[in-house]
Amino acid sequence: MFSDQDYFALNDVLKVAGLHPFYSDAKYPPTREEIPAILKTSRGGNEGPLELASFPITEKESLYQHIARLTVDKDPRNGYRRGTYISTTGGGSGGTPMVFATDSLENRKQRAVQGNLLRECGLIVSGDWVLTLHVSGHLYRAIDLMTELFENAGAAVLCAGPEMSHQAVVESLVQFRANAVAGDVSQLLQLANYVMSLDDDQRREIWVNKLIYTSESMTELQSDFLISVFGEITICSVIGSAEAGPWGVSSTALMGSTKGKYTDFIVDKRAMILEVLPFSISQEKGPHTSCSLTSCAESVPLGQTGLLVQTSLQRLRNPLVRYLCGDVASLHPLSSELRSKLPAGCTDHYQVARVYGRDQRSSFTWYGEYFDFQAVQSFMSKNEWNIVQWQVILRHTDPKGAGIILDVRVLRGLHIAEKHASDHDLAERMREFFWVFDFNRELFHLEFVVKSDGFLRSKTGRKVMRFVDLTK
Q: What Gene3D superfamilies does this protein map onto (predicted)?
């Protein structure tokens, strides 16, 4: 059991934030050694407590600008590069992966606390053996993050390497009597497809009773498909990001079957303050450069959807304050049924965040990566590609929803000059941009259409839609 001493006080987080480049004109963040003096001065002064609402909303774009500068600045005064754990995004928007530096000691404490949340909520129980499939082609945090969370929760963990075949994964499940498999949704679906190909005797040797997914939402079709393969399993999820770290957990044993349109996550209010603000705030641009959205917007009522804003009480040296994370969500108190399934000493600290996925006005998700529409637009508009029209489509691999295909269709100009890339070169760069590797290549389709009727069109105006999600 963890106490309030394992979380930072909001006033302390805001005091440090007021001296940090993310939220002020300061050039460098404080070092670990400078933090105690900052807090001592704050606590000994006559100033009243700082108000969270006094901080404007922080946007991803402005945060990344500061991070890009601080990451490469080797000045000894730059606390951002000292004593830190480097948490990277997957680079899903096609550019250099964003690097969020967390104090290494804070990072360990957060993983211990969140591992305890997994245990308290029953995602991990005594005796669990978890085989994790988390891999990536480049820098990524998922495998070490999830391994440590599972270990802190009390599980034994087997880490499957990126070259491990599905046959070898199944053999390991059988050999070690592992009862749980963790991975991105796409990885779990690919494993399930392989298990379907086995005969009945081979399938009976697999003892899996729990699947734990991360990185992307799971549809109702996908959930039903996994259950049809593995039987009556519990499907769990952990939500997190490079910026916030892990911050919520979900389990069908607690919340019931997957609804498809959203996932309910249990969140400890001592670790994370969540606000849900109206969708209109994304249009309320102000004169600020580092925090461009107004701080005047009030949270929507409980149960109403809006844009999710995060303030971490587990990140102090590089604070995360009122961060517009890009998810659509609503907040709910624990139901009496849910309270009855959880340890009595914890329920007063918990709430439910109902997450509907990314705000599709700005991004979409495929194979556990987030792709920013603005970055996709910028890529497609490069002169060297000579692309006059393009379309991105997400669709299921089959009616059972066993996987999601990223279908990219492009129409190039009729005249291909020397300055323009060949179809082959464009295809290679396209695969690099969308992070296509051997393990997800079969789920990526690129089509060079020759006429505009090769695109899907809107039913009313017959317009070519830039993004079409056929999985909803």
A: N-terminal domain of ligase-like
